[in-house]
Amino acid sequence: MTVFYHSAPLLLESGSVIQPGNWGRILNAYKFSNQGNPWLVAREMLFESVRSSQFPHLPSRLSSSYVFESLNDANRYMGNFTPWNNLYEVEFVDPAAVTHRGCFDLASNPPEQCDFMPVVADRARQYWSGINITTPEVITKSALRVLGMLMSAPAAYQP
Question: Is 138 domain-assigned?
């Protein structure tokens, strides 16, 4: 059994199963408005375009589960992006499912004032090639089974 780390906003018990595809569901729910971050959608569409044309055998980020291999990387991710989430120790329900190990840093926002499309497309090619991995991120078509909660998010205000 290989153990991974997953950040989620839900309170889950050991044995709970997290289905893949939540990130794609979130992006598909974006409404045209002045809220949210449309650059996330643009970035993910470029990543998906590069994947489907050059790496079609790899799983889509939009229909996968995401995990970190190290607790250190999971904690850094949560501190920078999702401090309101809980951190879980998980395993793949289907260890034989298609997976990809890429660099999380390449899939984050590009530098400001860059030429967005060519820079993100190049980062996507590196991500899908599995090169220049500084912070490993594993995506998989497998659902995740919760082994236990490692860290609980700060409690919400209760009057």
Answer: yes
